[in-house]
C-alpha cells in the first residue's frame, strides 16, 4: 500500500508502523523508547506525528499504516506534544552532561541536539541516585535514567532473563533488580543487552572494557579478539552447549585446521580475557575445544572443508611440515594451487609430533588432522630436507619457509657443554617420539626452568630416568605452575635458585653438574648478562649421566639456505631489515616461528593464515581465505539459569601421577558430555550483543 | 580500506571542526570531516553560547564594548602571555561570527546583564557583557545545553554545503608527503581503515581532558585524587599527538582550572549549598581566600591548587544552615536559588551513599577527625573568625561584613572541594593563521590546528572577565582556519 509522509509518497505493507516505514524511507521521526529490536511501548511520545483526519497526534512507533494515510511529522500539534514529552524526559535527567561517560554517543544528547533543549523545571524532579559500580562488568549510573524501559524489554522479552524491571524505590519508579539485590543474585546472565539498548549513560560497561584501542566488536567479545586466529569462540561454545560438536568443530575449522591439537595444547590466551573471569573464573575454552574435537562424530563440515577452487596451475612448495606449513598449505590448496610440503623428519606435524610430549598431544591425533589436509590434495613429502630455498623457488611459483625453530640451543659458554652426553630438550622429545636412540644414561640433569624443561622432564620420567631440573628461578617461576607441578608429581626433582658453573666429566663422559645456590638474579638491561646474588660457599655437584639444555631453540639456518638472514639466523626482508612474511628472494615467503622466534601453536597457525592470503594474492588470487563451513544458531532468548553467576569452572582431570608416568598416553582426561555441557553453559555469550540493532540517530538521515 | 578525496580533511566535528568545515566549504573547497563520536558538537553541545564583541545584538542593546577594548582587557588579564596578533584578529572576528551563525539559520540571543558580582570582586572579576546564547526552539527558555541547537544547525549546514561527515570514524594519523600534509588515516566503526587524500588537514580534536595519563605527564595532576575535571569521552589528545608526529612544536599546556566536588552531578544541590561566602579553610585549618571572592571559579581553582593537598573545606554551623534555609543563598549559582529547599534530602542521600566528601559532626574535634583538618589550626582560626563576626569586621581579609557568620553552634557541616576543569588547553604551537609551526617557527605546509588543541591565549587563567571565550575561540579559530586554508590551497 501507499501512504504519504511529509508529502512524500512511500510504499509500505500491512502491519508496519509509521515509524518503521518512515525510517526505511530515510524520513527521520524523533523517537527514544522504541528500539529497532524491541516492541513499541509508545511511552515517550517523542515520535508523535499528525495524521490527517485525526484530532490528536499519534505515536508513530505504535500506530500502524493504513492505505492512503497522510502524515505530517513536524506539525504544530505533534511538535507541541513532542516538546512536552522532551521536557518530561529531561526533567528526570541531570541538567548537566558533564562527567557522563556516554557523552558523544548518547541518544538523548542527540535528541536534545535535534529538538532543542528545554531546561524548564529540570532539576525539580531529578533526584540523586548513587552510582552502582559494584556489579561485575555492568555499571548502573541511574541518575541518568529516563525510564524509557528499553532495558526492561531487552532483559525480559529479548533475552528472557527477567532481572531488570520497573521498581518502586523510595516513592519513585526506577529501574532495578527485585529488592535491590546484586545482579548476580538476581540471576543476571551478564549478556549486556541492557547496555546495548540503553539510550543514555545509565547502564554501561564497567570502565576500561570499551577502549579506543580496539574496535567495539573486539572490545565486546575479547576472547575472539585475543585469539591470534580469531576463532569465533562464543559461537562454538554455544554449539557445544547445544550438544552439536560437529557444528562447533566446523566453526573452529573456519579459522584453524588443528582443532584437536589446539584443544590439547593451546596456551589459551583467550581465557585471560574472558569476561566471565570478572564474575568468578573464565570459561575453560581450550578444554571445550578438545571436547568438541573428540566428540565430532559426523564431521558435517568436511565436504565444504575439503572442496578446493579450480586449479590455478600455480605450484607452491612449503618447506616445513609443522603447523604453520601445513596450515598455509591447506589454504593455498583451497585456493586452487598445487601444493607440496617438504618435511625433514619422517612424519609431518613439526613440534606437534616431535617437539612436545606425546602425553600432551598424541601423534595419531595430529596425523588424523593432517590427513584431512591431505584430502584436499596437499602433497606431503617426508624425510626430505631442503637445503636451499632460493634454488627450490626455481621450480615453483612460490615457496614458503616454515621450518620453525627446530634446533635446540646449548649454552656453549658453560664449561663442558661440548661433551658428548650433552643434549637439548628437543633431542629428548624427538628421541621418544621418533624413536631416536641417545645415550642419556640413568640420571639426567635438565638445565632450564621453562615449560619445555618440564616437558623434557615428564618425558624422561616416563622413559624410566631419574630427572633433576636445575634452574635460576625460585620455584621455576618461568613455567606454568600446573605443568611444573605435574612433572614434579611424576617424580622429577627441582633444584631451583641454582646457578650452573660447569658440566663435569670423568673419562670423557658426563658425570655431574657443578652448581651453586643464589638468592636472586637479574639480567643487565643493556648486555643481557646474568647478574646474580650468589650464596657464598654453596658450590656443590649434582651427579648425573647426561645433561639436557632447555634453553630455547633456533632456526639452525645458514647462508647456504639462499635467503638473507639476520645475525641470529632468522630470515629478513632487506626492504625493512626485519623478519617479515617476505624475504630477500621474490616469491620466497616465510612465516611461523622462523620469523617470530619460538611462540605458540596458535601463533604459527595465525601467521600461516596471513601468509597464505598474501601468497595467494602474489599468485594472482584475491587472498580471501575465510569461509563459512557450517550454519549456526544464535538464539537471543537465552532465558534464566538459576545461580548462573556462581556456576563453577570445570577443570580438566589429570590421571593419577603414579599411573600416568608409566605410559605416554594423554595424561589428562577430556570432559565428559555432562562436563562439556555444563562448562559451555557458563558462557556469557557476549557476541549476542553485536546482533542487537543499532538505534537510529537523526544524523544518520540526510 | 575506504578511500576519499578532498581538498581539506577536518579531524573531529566539535565546534571548531564544524566551523572549519563550513568555512572551508563556503570557500568552495571539498571537505571530508572525520568524527570519532556518534553525536557532533563535542563539548559545545553541553554549552550555552559563545563570546562575541561588537555583534549587532550587542549594539542594539547598547553594549559599547569594542574589539579593541576587549583585546586590551584580555591581554592585560593574560599579562600579554599570548600571541597579540592572533588575539586581536580573533576579537575582531567574533562580532561578525554571530552574523555568520544567524545566516545559517541559528538564532542567537543576547540578554545583556551578567552574573551578580560582589563589591570586592568587581575590580578583577566583573564580567563584560560578551556572552551570547543560542536560542532554543520557540516557546522554550535558553538554559544549559542550548548550544546543542547550534551544533545541530552547523552539522546540517556543513552537509548542505557538500561536506562529507564520517561519524564514528576517528582520525588516527596525518599523512605527510614531501613535507606537506597530504592526507589522514582513520578507522571506521567496524575497524576498517579509511584514507582521506587531501591538500590540507585541520586538526580540531578538543585537547586531552579524557587522558589522565597525559594530564599527569604534562601537568602533574592526578585525576580522581586531586583533580576532578570533566572528561569529555574521546578527548584523549589525538590532535596534539598527530600534530607533534608531523613535527609541530609543543606549546604551553594547561587546564582552565575551576573547582569542583567529586561526582558533582549526584551532589548538585550540596555543591550549590556550600558555594557560599562561608568559612573556607585548608587542611591546616587556615583561611586562604576572602570568601566573598569564591564566585570567580577560575581564580578560585588557582587558590585551591596552592593549598596543601590541593583541596579545601567549606564549613557552616547549624545557625547558618537555619538562616540559609529561611532566607535563601547569598550567591545563586548554576545550581539555582532553591538549593537549601533540598538540603536535608541531599545531605541524607550523601550520607546514605557513603559519599566521602560531605561531613557532619557535633563538635569541632569530631569534624577535624572526620575531615583530617588540623584541629589546632581550625581552633585558632575559629577563635579569630568568630571574634571578627562578633565585631562585624573581617580583620584578616576584610570580607564583606554581610557574610561574617560565626561557626559556633553544632552540628557542623562541611564539604570538601578540589580543583576541576572543563578540559585542557594548548599543546600545538600555531601562528596567527592557525598553521602548526615547528621548533623554528616555520609553518608545516597544509597542517592546521584549531580549537582547544591550540588555544594559548589565556596566559595562566581563564579570563573570567570576558565570558564565553573558550567556545568563541573554538568557533572563531575554526572559522578563520577554514578561510586561511582556502588561501593556502588557492595559492
Helix/strand layout:
The complex is a heterodimer of chains A (702) and B (491).
Chain A: E1 2-5, E2 8-11, H1 18-24, E3 48-51, E4 58-59, E5 70-72, H2 76-91, H3 107-115, H4 122-125, E6 138-140, H5 150-158, E7 165-169, E8 172-176, H6 183-186, H7 193-197, E9 203-205, H8 216-220, H9 222-226, H10 233-241, H11 245-253, H12 259-265, H13 269-273, H14 285-294, H15 302-306, E10 315-319, H16 323-334, E11 338-342, H17 351-354, H18 363-375, E12 379-381, H19 389-393, E13 398-401, E14 407-408, E15 422-424, H20 425-434, E16 443-447, H21 451-462, E17 466-470, H22 481-489, E18 493-495, E19 498-506, E20 509-523, E21 530-534, E22 540-543, E23 546-549, E24 553-554, E25 588-590, H23 593-596, H24 601-618, E26 653-654, H25 657-660, E27 668-669, H26 673-681
Parallel strand pairs in A: 1-5, 10-11, 10-13, 11-12, 13-25, 15-23, 16-17, 16-23, 17-18
Antiparallel strand pairs in A: 1-2, 3-4, 3-5, 6-9, 7-8, 14-24, 19-20, 20-21, 20-22, 26-27
Helix pairs in contact in A: 10-11, 10-14, 10-26, 11-14, 12-14, 14-26, 16-24, 20-21, 21-22
Chain B: E1 2-5, E2 8-11, H1 15-26, E3 31-34, H2 56-60, H3 67-77, H4 84-103, E4 108-109, H5 122-125, E5 133-134, H6 148-160, E6 164-166, E7 171-177, E8 180-187, E9 193-197, E10 200-203, H7 212-219, H8 238-245, E11 254-260, H9 268-274, E12 279-281, H10 297-305, E13 311-316, H11 318-327, H12 343-353, E14 358-361, H13 364-371, H14 375-391, E15 412-425, E16 435-437, E17 443-449, H15 469-490
Parallel strand pairs in B: 1-9, 2-3, 2-10, 3-6, 10-17
Antiparallel strand pairs in B: 4-5, 7-8, 8-9, 11-15, 12-13, 13-15, 14-15, 16-17
Helix pairs in contact in B: 1-6, 1-15, 3-4, 4-15
Amino acid at each position: 500500500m501507499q501512504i504519504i509522509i511529509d508529502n512524500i509518497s512511500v510504499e509500505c505493507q500491512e502491519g508496519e508502523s509509521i515509524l518503521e516505514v518512515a525510517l526505511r524511507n530515510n524520513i527521520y521521526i524523533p523517537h527514544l523508547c522504541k528500539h529497532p529490536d524491541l516492541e513499541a511501548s509508545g511511552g515517550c511520545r517523542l515520535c508523535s506525528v499528525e495524521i490527517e483526519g485525526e484530532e490528536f497526534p499519534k505515536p508513530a512507533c505504535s500506530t500502524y499504516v493504513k492505505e492512503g494515510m497522510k502524515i505530517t511529522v513536524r506539525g504544530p500539534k505533534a511538535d507541541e506534544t513532542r516538546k512536552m514529552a522532551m521536557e518530561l524526559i529531561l526533567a528526570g535527567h541531570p541538567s548537566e552532561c558533564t562527567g557522563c561517560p556516554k557523552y558523544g554517543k548518547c541518544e538523548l544528547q542527540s535528541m536534545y541536539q535535534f529538538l532543542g533543549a528545554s531546561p524548564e523545571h529540570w532539576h525539580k524532579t531529578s533526584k540523586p541516585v548513587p552510582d552502582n559500580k559494584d556489579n561485575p562488568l555492568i555499571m548502573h549510573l541511574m541518575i541518568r535514567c529516563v525510564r524509557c524501559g528499553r532495558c526492561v524489554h531487552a532483559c525480559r522479552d529479548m533475552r528472557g532473563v527477567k532481572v531488570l524491571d520497573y521498581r518502586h524505590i523510595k516513592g519513585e519508579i526506577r529501574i532495578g533488580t527485585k529488592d535491590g539485590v546484586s545482579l548476580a543474585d538476581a540471576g543476571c546472565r551478564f549478556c549486556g543487552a541492557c547496555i546495548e539498548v540503553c539510550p543514555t549513560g545509565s547502564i554501561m560497561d564497567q570502565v576500561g572494557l570499551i577502549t579506543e584501542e580496539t574496535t567495539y566488536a573486539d572490545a565486546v567479545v575479547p576472547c575472539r579478539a585475543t585469539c591470534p586466529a580469531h576463532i569465533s569462540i562464543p559461537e562454538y561454545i554455544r554449539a557445544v552447549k547445544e550438544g552439536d560438536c560437529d557444528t562447533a568443530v566446523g566453526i573452529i575449522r573456519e579459522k584453524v585446521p588443528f582443532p584437536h591439537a589446539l584443544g590439547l595444547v593451546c596456551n589459551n590466551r583467550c581465557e585471560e580475557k574472558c569476561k566471565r573471569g570478572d564474575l568468578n573464573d573464565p570459561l575453560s575454552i581450550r578444554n571445550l575445544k578438545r571436547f568438541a574435537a573428540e566428540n565430532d562424530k559426523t564431521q558435517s563440515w568436511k565436504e565444504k572443508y575439503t572442496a578446493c577452487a579450480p586449479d590455478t596451475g600455480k605450484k607452491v612448495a612449503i618447506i616445513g611440515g609443522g603447523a604453520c606449513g601445513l596450515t598455509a598449505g591447506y589454504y593455498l590448496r583451497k585456493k586452487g594451487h598445487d601444493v607440496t610440503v617438504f618435511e625433514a623428519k619422517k612424519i609431518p606435524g613439526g613440534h606437534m609430533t616431535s617437539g612436545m610430549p606425546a602425553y600432551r598431544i598424541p601423534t595419531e591425533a595430529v596425523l588424523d588432522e593432517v590427513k584431512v589436509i591431505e584430502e584436499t590434495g596437499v602433497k606431503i613429502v617426508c624425510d626430505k630436507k631442503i637445503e636451499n630455498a632460493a634454488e627450490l623457488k626455481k621450480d615453483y611459483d612460490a615457496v614458503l619457509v616454515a621450518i620453525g625453530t627446530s634446533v635446540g640451543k646449548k649454552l656453549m659458554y658453560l664449561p663442558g657443554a661440548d661433551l658428548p652426553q650433552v643434549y637439548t630438550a628437543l633431542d629428548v622429545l624427538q628421541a621418544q617420539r621418533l624413536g631416536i636412540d641417545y645415550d642419556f644414561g640413568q640420571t639426567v640433569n635438565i638445565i632450564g626452568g621453562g615449560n619445555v624443561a618440564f616437558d623434557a622432564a615428564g618425558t624422561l620420567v616416563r622413559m624410566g630416568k631419574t630427572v633433576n631440573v636445575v634452574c635460576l628461578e625460585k620455584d621455576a617461576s618461568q613455567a606454568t605452575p600446573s605443568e611444573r607441578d605435574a612433572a614434579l608429581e611424576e617424580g622429577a626433582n627441582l633444584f631451583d635458585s641454582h646457578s650452573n658453573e660447569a658440566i663435569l666429566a670423568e673419562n670423557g663422559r658426563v658425570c655431574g653438574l657443578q652448581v651453586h645456590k643464589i638468592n636472586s638474579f637479574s639480567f643487565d638491561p643493556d648486555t643481557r648478562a646474568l647478574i646474580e646474588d650468589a650464596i657464598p660457599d654453596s658450590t656443590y655437584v649434582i651427579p648425573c649421566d647426561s645433561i639436557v639444555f632447555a634453553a630455547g631453540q633456533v632456526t639452525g639456518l645458514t647462508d647456504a639456505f639462499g635467503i638473507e638472514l639476520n645475525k641470529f639466523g632468522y630470515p629478513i626482508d632487506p626492504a625493512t631489515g626485519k623478519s617479515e612474511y617476505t624475504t630477500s628472494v621474490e616469491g620466497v615467503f616465510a612465516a611461523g616461528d622462523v620469523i617470530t622466534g619460538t611462540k605458540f601453536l596458535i601463533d604459527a597457525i595465525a601467521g600461516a593464515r596471513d601468509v597464505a592470503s598474501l601468497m595467494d594474492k602474489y599468485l594472482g588470487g584475491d587472498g580471501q581465505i575465510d569461509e563459512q563451513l557450517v550454519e549456526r544458531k544464535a538464539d537471543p532468548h537465552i532465558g534464566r539459569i538459576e545461580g548462573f553467576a556462581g556456576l563453577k569452572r570445570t577443570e580438566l582431570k589429570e590421571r593419577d601421577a603414579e599411573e600416568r608416568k608409566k605410559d605416554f598416553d594423554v595424561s589428562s582426561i577430556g570432559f565428559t558430555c555432562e562436563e562439556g555441557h555444563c562448562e559451555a553453559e557458563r558462557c556469557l555469550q557476549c557476541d549476542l550483543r553485536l546482533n542487537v540493532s543499532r538505534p537510529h540517530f537523526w544524523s544518520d538521515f540526510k | 580500506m575506504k578511500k576519499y578525496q578532498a581538498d581539506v580533511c577536518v579531524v573531529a566535528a566539535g565546534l571548531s571542526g564544524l566551523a572549519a568545515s563550513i568555512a572551508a566549504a563556503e570557500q568552495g573547497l571539498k571537505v571530508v570531516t572525520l568524527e570519532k563520536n556518534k553525536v557532533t558538537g563535542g563539548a559545545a553541545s553541553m554549552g550555552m553560547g559563545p563570546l562575541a564583541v561588537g555583534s549587532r545584538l550587542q549594539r542594539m542593546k547598547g553594549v559599547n564594548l569594542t574589539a579593541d577594548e576587549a583585546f586590551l582587557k584580555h591581554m592585560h588579564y593574560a599579562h600579554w602571555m599570548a600571541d597579540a596578533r592572533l588575539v586581536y584578529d580573533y576579537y575582531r572576528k567574533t562580532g561578525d561570527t554571530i552574523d555568520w551563525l544567524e545566516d545559517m539559520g541559528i538564532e542567537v540571543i543576547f540578554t545583556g546583564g551578567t552574573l551578580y558580582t560582589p563589591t570586592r570582586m568587581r575590580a578583577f572579576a566583573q564580567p563584560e557583557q560578551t556572552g551570547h546564547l543560542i536560542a532554543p526552539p520557540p516557546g522554550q527558555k535558553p538554559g544549559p545545553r542550548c548550544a546543542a541547537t547550534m551544533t545541530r544547525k552547523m552539522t546540517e549546514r556543513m552537509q548542505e554545503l557538500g561536506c562529507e561527515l564520517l561519524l564514528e570514524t576517528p582520525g588516527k594519523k596525518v599523512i605527510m608527503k614531501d613535507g606537506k600534509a597530504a592526507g589522514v588515516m582513520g578507522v571506521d566503526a567496524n575497524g576498517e581503515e579509511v584514507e582521506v587524500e587531501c591538500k590540507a588537514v585541520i586538526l580540531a580534536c578538543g585537547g586531552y581532558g579524557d587522558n589522565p595519563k597525559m594530564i599527569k605527564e604534562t601537568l602533574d595532576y592526578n585525576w580522581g585524587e586531586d583533580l576532578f575535571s570533566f572528561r569529555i569521552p574521546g578527548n584523549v589528545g589525538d590532535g596534539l599527538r598527530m600534530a607533534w608526529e608531523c613535527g609541530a612544536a609543543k606549546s604551553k599546556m594547561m587546564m582552565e582550572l575551576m573547582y569542583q566536588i567529586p561526582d558533582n552531578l549526584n551532589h548538585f544541590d550540596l555543591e550549590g549549598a556550600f558555594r557560599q561566602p562561608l568559612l573556607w579553610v585548608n587542611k591546616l585549618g587556615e583561611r586562604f581566600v576572602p570568601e566573598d571572592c569564591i564566585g570567580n571559579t577560575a581564580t578560585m581553582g588557582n587558590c585551591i591548587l596552592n593549598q596543601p593537598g590541593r583541596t579545601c573545606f567549606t564549613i557552616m554551623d547549624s545557625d547558618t544552615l537555619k538562616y540559609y534555609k529561611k532566607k535563601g543563598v547569598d550567591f545563586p549559582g548554576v545550581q539555582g536559588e532553591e538549593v537549601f529547599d533540598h538540603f536535608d534530602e541531599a545531605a541524607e542521600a550523601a550520607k546514605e551513599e557513603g559519599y566521602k566528601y560531605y561531613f557532619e559532626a557535633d563538635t569541632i574535634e569530631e569534624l577535624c577527625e572526620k575531615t583530617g583538618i588540623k584541629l589546632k589550626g581550625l581552633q585558632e582560626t575559629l577563635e579569630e573568625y568568630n571574634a571578627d563576626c562578633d565585631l562585624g569586621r573581617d580583620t584578616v581579609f576584610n570580607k564583606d561584613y554581610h557574610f561574617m557568620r560565626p561557626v559556633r553552634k553544632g552540628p557542623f557541616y562541611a564539604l570538601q572541594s578540589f580543583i576541576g576543569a572543563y578540559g585542557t588547553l594548548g599543546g600545538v604551537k600555531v601562528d596567527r593563521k592557525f598553521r602548526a609551526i615547528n621548533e623554528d617557527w616555520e609553518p608545516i605546509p597544509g597542517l592546521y590546528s584549531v580549537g582547544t588543541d591550540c588555544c594559548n591565549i589565556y596566559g595562566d587563567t581563564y579570563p573570567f572577565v570576558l565570558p564565553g571565550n573558550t567556545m568563541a575561540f573554538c568557533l572563531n579559530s575554526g572559522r578563520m582556519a577554514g578561510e586561511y586554508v582556502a588561501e593556502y590551497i588557492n595559492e
